[in-house]
């Protein structure tokens, strides 16, 4: 599986109120599940499920937020 490089697009993405972004990870932070809204808003391809969750962390976000 190839690594996913994060490149902030400078685009704000919004969703309808009440819709939830859902991901599930294992104890090592590997994404096991991502719902359709997460995939849509993050532009994270479903084929990348199985990668560490931190691969989608914005470079400006402190590492402590994603546990890295």
UniProtKB/TrEMBL annotation:
Q: Per its UniProt record, what SUPFAM superfamilies does this chain match?
A: PYP-like sensor domain (PAS domain)
What the entry lists under InterPro entries is as follows: PAS-like_dom_sf
Listed name of the protein = PAS domain-containing protein
Q: Which organism is it from?
A: Couchioplanes caeruleus subsp. caeruleus
Traced from the root, the source organism's taxonomic lineage reads: Bacteria, Bacillati, Actinomycetota, Actinomycetes, Micromonosporales
């Amino acid at each position: 599986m190839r690594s996913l490089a994060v490149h902030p697009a400078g685009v704000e993405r919004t969703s309808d109120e009440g819709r939830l972004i859902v991901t599930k990870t294992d104890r090592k932070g590997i994404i096991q599940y991502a719902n359709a809204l997460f995939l849509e808003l993050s532009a994270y391809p479903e084929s990348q499920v199985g990668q560490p969750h931190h691969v989608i962390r914005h470079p400006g976000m402190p590492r402590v937020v994603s546990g890295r």
